[in-house]
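Example 3.2
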Amino acid sequence: MATATIEEDRIDALFGALADRTRRDILRRVLVAEHSVSALAAAYDMSFAAVQKHVAVLDRAGLIAKRRRGREQLARGEVGAVRSVASLLSDLEELWRGRITRIDDLLAEDITKE
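Structure, written as tokens:
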């Protein structure tokens, strides 16, 4: 039970992090190449501290990894985490496609009974 809760918390963190358009844009940038948080902040019309908070949310969700290079903090995208999000979405799509197929079958069954 505890493992299931931990996994659900992880999924909540992933989707919570991706719910914000700025964080999605930051993720796109750091998946292409490693960027300093300062360079990321320069790309947005918000304070350095605000961008730093977005980066922290992505880091806590496991979507990016940070490292230090001297005084700079560098961020890079975690492809494995992005793949796990894609896998979760694929599983949900499969579930709903199955439900839609069952509804279609029930409707077709009703039509043939009439």
